[in-house]
Design goal:
This protein is mainly β and 833 residues long. The protein contains 13 helices and 36 strands. Strand 32 and strand 33 form a beta hairpin. It is elongated, with a radius of gyration of 39 Å.
Length: 833
Amino acid sequence: MRNNTIALLCLLLLSFSVNGQIVDYSTAKEYSVGGIIVDGANHIDHKVITLLSGIRIGDKVQVPGDQFSTAIENIWKQGYFDDVQILINKIDENVIYLIIKVVERPRLIKYTLTGIKKSESEDLRPFINLRKGRVLTDGVIAATKQTAKEFFIERSYMNVKVTTELIKDDVKENSAVLAITIDKGSKSHIKDINFIGLQEIKKGKAYRKFKETKRRRWWNLFNSGKYVEEDYLADKKAIIAMYNEKGFRDAKIIRDSIYRIDEKHLSIDVVIDEGHKYYFRNITWVGNSKYSSKKLSRILGINKGDVFDQTRLDTRLHMNPNGADVSSLYMDNGYLFFNLNPVEIMATEDSIDFEIRIFEGKQATINKVTVVGNTKTNDHVILRELHTQPGQLFRRSDIIRSQREIAQLGYFDPEKMGVLPIPDPLSGTVDIEYTVEEKPSDQIELSGGYGGGRLVGTLGISFTNFSAKNFFKKDSWRPLPSGDGQKLSLRAQSNGAQFQSYSLSFTEPWLGGKKPQSLSFSTYYSIQSNGLPKSDVDRTSLNIFGVSVGFGQRLKKPDNYFQLYQEFNYEYYTLKDFSTFLSFSNGFSSNIYYRVSLQRNSVDKPIFETRGSKISLTGQFTLPYSLWNGKDYNSPTLSDQERYEFVEYQKYKFTTTFFTPITNKKGADGKDARNLILKSSAGFGFLAPYSTRTGEVPFERFYLGGSGLTGFTLGGREIIALRGYDDNGSVSPEGGASFISKYSMELRFPISLNPQATIFVLGFAEAGNSWNKAKDFNPFDVKRSAGIGLRLFLPMFGLLGFDYGWRLDESDYSPFVPKSQFHFTIGATLGEL
């Protein structure tokens, strides 16, 4: 109980002597305040207390009077004191001297949590805002109790009780320990949700709209039936939104109640008034001069008699994620200052008329384009990727595309990218500012793989934002010259004496700096043997040396998502008693080919893609040497060395991959939240000689089965993953296949979209097969598998994959492999066709 004893009020009708002077409280008398003393405050400035009282030296006060009770109230409500009194120190004629006497509330030494587990205590502490030395006011203690209660209520402990006790310290004056005791009680689960008033909507749909607030049922292992108020409020909005989408725009929840059935169970009643069902009737356009009303109505796509849906109307007018909308039509033609306002002009018993009022404004041109936040990457590397250039008309689609191109660079956090248009209506221009945040993009590969009956270690480093022109500038090494968007990769693989491989590659994405034309160069050398010394007559070996030069360019037609890549490659094989390729085991062979690839890539992000597609058509060709070399390939005396001195073939691959969002949740900032994504892909490969008389092609063959990670690449072979089956091409004939088909579907869900550790889980279903002869090729005769997996992207190591697959069919070539397989992969494209 608050004790605010005031000597003046206690003696209201009495008289007593102060310093020999009689004070008569039966008659009010005015005094001038001559001085104020504060007593009892050891931690709070006395001047502050005097200031809070509202009484100043020199003020006129009446004794008795209301000024003293007001002063006490002003000091008391700060919450820092257990007792406040204002006393008369002395009176000198018409001058009064006062004492403000206070008793301070204790300050916190520490707080304790009892009645709960240690782990629960550790989880709760970050939410309790108590620090050593804080004044333990009634408000602070009440807030602490409420925080503890809400913490456990959110975890379904609806009967939680929290009590507190102040334990004063005997050593330290005016200090105390706050003992918090928590009795959680038993968990409360939702047993029933009763929807009352449903007529047009079935109860099953209503239950499904309550996505987070669900009834506890024994068969649903993933739902505990817990009650969380925030989720419940969101679910109530969702069910009304469902009614609105079906034309019931007046639908509302009249009342709802949450009550206990027993100590462990809750029940929820939701009473709904559905209202009438409405339809669109007449929609007219006002203020449009650029586009006809007929065209705008066609884009709107809402006809007379359609069920009224406010969400559908808003989406077709603004930001339609699945197609065109009216705003996009204007904004993509420079009308930045465009605005529209749908006005409901008439509503009858079941129909609504709308008038959509448009202000077109004038077309805006881009003035300045700037980038902020790039601390490593040079401005020109970003600016050259943008589709918004000074002097162009402003187009919203160009901004969206520019953000996609920045994300594709891989240097920046896609979740932190932003764009800020700064319009100037007077000049009809707009400045555009892109915001980025650098993330680590260089990668170190330190891994091991098992293939060919041996363990192979890999050490590689990839600098994805390299700067060759600053290579000889000492000040640019931080720790390497970077910022110009070039890529330099160095890689070494070995398992000791039996296998070694070394490679180096360099790519300049903007040759000359003016056009998006890339130039790449790579060289590699590998040795595979039985491990014996070179001087040993029983040594078997295969040496491969290769060098390639590639040229890529972005195309504007059919659209600007297309790219053309051309490559010239020379590989030289030296074989010594190495019987891997058919009967060819001794000699040398040259593989000189031209590869051309036409690709279309419209995916939105490089790591966890959420929408878009990848389509690729690749052809690889050698010269048809057999037309002019004069060799008789049907002759039994023709040696393998002569036959394969210059290998000739033609090779084609066609692949498609689509990313489709199954859910379309949005985050608080309007960006995509964690959504379920479907990845579907198909691929076909064909390898054939120009003439049947030259025989099968010994190199560049397809090997299907396993994870695609064999540890090494040998003779241009393509290792295609088919999870659930054994590695080493268990779904291919010995020596590889000439024809292949593969189909795959994955459902992906992100656990973390943090660029420092992107994690997502997946479920997959795959099918594929391979054949050696064209006559056997049948794209519907496939071997199937299914399974689950996890992907982890770390900037320094790239994308790591872990999969567990079950095969559903027997392999024709390896019928005795286990029914299930665990697979480990490195890289996003490893094992793809």
